[in-house]
Amino acid sequence: MDNGERLLIEFYVSHKVDSKKRQIIVDNHLKCIEIDINYQALDKAELKEFLTGTDEDRKWIVSIPSPPQSKGESFSYGRNPMYEKTRDILKEIFDKGTITIHPFASSFSQVNKSFDLRKVGYDVCEVNTRWRGFKSDLLLYRSQKKDKGHISINIRGRRRSEGFRYPKGLRIIDIVFKAIDSEESTKKRLNDENLVGDLGMTVEYYGFRTEK
Question: In this predicted model, what pLDDT tens digit does every residue of 86-134 receive, in sequence order?
Fold first, then answer.
């Protein structure tokens, strides 16, 4: 820099600065900023605009205090295996026909708010796929469109926190289960191709244009 100082820049694509590298930076009193390009399009013009025209997704690398040690027992609960089964059921439904979504409907009776994904061009459905760093249980897109309009479908046990980050250009559908117990009950909920919530299942939409 003009005053003779050096600034280190780390680009976060898939891995953040780990604790070992962070400690080296801190111990040597170095200045380092981490720029998260994980969700950015790898297009030269768009990337240049993000790097030079905004101050988003940047943070200084500083010392982080160690978290307090828990005195109690530690438990790690894996993801409910039924989530994978539900994902596979949805994939099979799409492969055999379509999925109908209702991003603007407050009730199923508002049929004019529905979108048959096959009819609007969605013909590809991939399992456990990342798009610009965001992982989806199912990723849907249109192979015949230049602007593919990716849709991410995810099976979850709880709602996301407010203001969570996801890539621009991605629309997200979360299927949130209050309880998910058997393959049979899950198939009953999803057997008519309509992604409609009920007392035990909520469908959340993110990134869809607000209805005018």
Answer: 999 999 999 999 999 998 866 545 455 789 999 999 999 999 999 988 9
Residue 138: φ, ψ to 5°: -130, 130
Residue 88 to residue 183: CA distance in whole angstroms = 11
Task: Say which DSSP state 72 is in.
Answer: S
Nearest to 189 by CA among 175, 172, 208: 175
For residue 181, give both structure tokens: 């117990």
DSSP code of 194?
B
Tokens of 32: 């380092």
- CA end-to-end distance (rounded Å), the chain: 49
Task: Confirm whether pTM is higher than 0.90.
Answer: no
Q: 66: exposed, middle or buried (C-beta count within 10 Å: 0-12, 13-18, 19+)?
A: exposed
> H or E element: which one contains 116?
strand 115-116
Determine the Cα–Cα distance for residues 42 and 167; give it in Å rounded to an integer: 12
CA distance linking residue 51 with residue 63, whole number of Å: 25
For 4, the token pair is 């003779």
Query: Which three-class secondary structure state does DSSP give residue 204?
Result: strand
CA distances from 75 to 70, 82, 117, 122, 159 (A): 11, 20, 40, 41, 22
**Chain centroid, CA 112 distance in Å:** 27
Q: How far is CA 181 from the centre of its chain?
A: 24
Strands 31-36 and 58-60, by their bridges, are antiparallel
38, 14 contact by CB (below 8 A): yes
